[in-house]
Amino acid sequence: MDVQTAVSREGAANPGFFLAIAGNIGVGKTELTTRLSQELGWVAYYEPVIQNPYLDPFYKDMPRWSFHLQIYFLSERFKAQVEISKGSLPFIQDRTIYEDAEIFARVLHAQGSMTQVDYENYTSLFGVMVDFLRKPDVILYLKASPETLMGRIAQRGRESEKGIGIDYIRRLSDAYDAWMVRARAYTEVMEIDTDSVPLQGETPAFRRLVEDLKRRYPRQVELPLDQG
């Protein structure tokens, strides 16, 4: 069975609800993915950051490593999406495959850190891959100001992220805002500005979000945790 058949058959037979958590570097996607997964009993899928062999070199030399990094992320997220499509449980994904092309590759190319040839090859491959994959049922878009994001990046202290500059973060934020306009054409988008609506810790805003998701998608919350 080829990949297209496998994804199409499994995805059509067992369509688990798909909540995507999207947003810039340092906005709090991973923490929120974990907490919502625990609260709702939904399966969590995380971004493959720690295992990525290109991340450290990339932040030291973006033009040299941008294509390698983006291909790695594309490959890993495609494999994750294939696995996701096989399940029947609702799930949450910490950053989607769509952000790779819509945000990161687009910004790297625009700022001259990815050549035209590499960008065309990348987007061609991305276009083939996403034809096999389902789109999120809902995108939860987390926002914060570039200054806030830089503070959070510094606070978590990842060695590989020490070279990130605020101009790069600003470009990514602008690209996210532009993507959300396009994304609303094919899925629901819930937007939260985490500068004014804090979700870290047991805040009223976090509790409202949990209750909102339960109210919107009650059938998903009722699914047993051991279903598979």
From TrEMBL:
Q: Where does ATP bind?
A: 152-156
Cellular component, GO, one term: cytoplasm
Question: What are the entry keywords?
Answer: ATP-binding, Kinase, Nucleotide-binding, Transferase
The UniProt record lists the Deoxynucleoside kinase domain at: 19-212
Specify one Pfam family.
Answer: dNK
InterPro entries in the cross-refs: DCK/DGK, Deoxyribonucleoside_kinase, DNK_dom, P-loop_NTPase
Catalytic residues (positions): 94
Task: Tell me the superkingdom of the source.
Answer: Bacteria
Where, by residue number, does substrate bind? 47, 59, 70, 95, 100, 161
Give the Gene Ontology MF terms in alphabetical order: ATP binding; deoxynucleoside kinase activity
Write the protein's name: Deoxynucleoside kinase
Q: Which organism is it from?
A: Eiseniibacteriota bacterium
